[in-house]
Amino acid sequence: MKRIYTHLFCLLSLLGMLSCTDKYTEIFTANAPVYMSYDDLRSAVKTSSAQPMKHPGKIYFKDNYILIIEQMKGIHLIDVSTPSSPKNIGFIEIPGCTDMAIRNQLLFADSYVDLVALDVSNLSNVKESHRLKDVLPYRVPATDNEFPVTRIDQKKGVILEWEVITEKRELEPSYYPNYPMYDNLANSSSPDKLSAGGISGSGFGKSGSMARFGLYDKYLYIADTYILNIFDVSGTLVNVGKSSLNGNVETMFVYDKHLFFGTPNGMLIYSLQVPNTPALVSTFWHATSCDPVVVQDGYAYITLRGGQVCHADFNRLDVVKLSADYKTNTLAASYNLTNPYGLAIDNNTLFVCDGTAGLKVYDATDKLAITSHQLAAFPDIKTYDVIPVNGYLFMVGDDGFYLYDYADLQHIKQIGHIPVVKE
């Protein structure tokens, strides 16, 4: 931000008193929003040919497909029916998409302020089935610089991107030394032919540990900081309502008729005994950090990440022993890590995305000695999240999508890769 102050001095008045009029010219460099109208947003969903991955985000598995979020743009469709040869077969354009879930043949995704349901029974012709308008918070894409953000007019539509502008303003003396008001919302609450196949069958897919979408019975849950949005997805989309949460939720994991939320201060456990009214069961507090959680057979595995954004100076894995009713939870062990993000557990095999330190695989049979039983490590990848399915591990990181065969735990190997295309 630059400021130029020009002082215009006055002559003495006839009364012998000094009277001045100062003008202040201020030049500001800032991010200005580029809008998409709501009408254009609500006609934008469509299927297109395969697109290169540039900014991959969350992942989801259903049938023989891995779906990968292209942050704020849409969803990549990856055919993994032949695991050693994953194929990028298409792209679903969904502006503002950051998360997803699949029930039967319907894919649910956020599109800025809207929730959309897409029929994915035929991936060559994905169709919008239902849309609920204005049920999600107004979000904006992140900026890639340190300039402030100009005022945002939500009536103009949603924000596709930012353009850097320079503004020059002349201010009257009465305004000095105030500065123009900028609302820095940018950090508020991330040609192949299409296959003729589709996502079919009944049941749910499988999300990664970084998800904020979760399915149980006929309900879709969407966590938004301190609020849980609940939708009935058994027929047409029905907005059931909102439920207040006891923490700032970052991630959600559905297991054993319960919701397990990762928050900066602890793990929250909610019962789904009454699915449309989740009830708090217990809270396991930990030091402030960023943390996804996964659960299996009476244990919760939580990665705690430090850094400036997460307000912590440590990185570790916590293993928490859960009681049968989830009301009494005790820390069993903690292990130092480098920069952990997502994780997954399959029987006694624990997969940890340790950020810049890569993918790590452990035998977690002995909860008191997990890091002493490392099965494999793939260090030269900046990892984000993983999903294990039937001896295959699907992983997404900063430089693309990876596929591993872990059927033989003594010889885990990478068998497929779709790289990110650098801009």
UniProtKB/TrEMBL annotation:
Pfam families (UniProt xref): LVIVD
Listed Gene3D superfamilies: YVTN repeat-like/Quinoprotein amine dehydrogenase
Stored SUPFAM superfamilies: YWTD domain
Protein's recorded name: LVIVD repeat-containing protein
Source organism per UniProt: Parabacteroides chartae
Lineage of the organism: Bacteria, Pseudomonadati, Bacteroidota, Bacteroidia, Bacteroidales
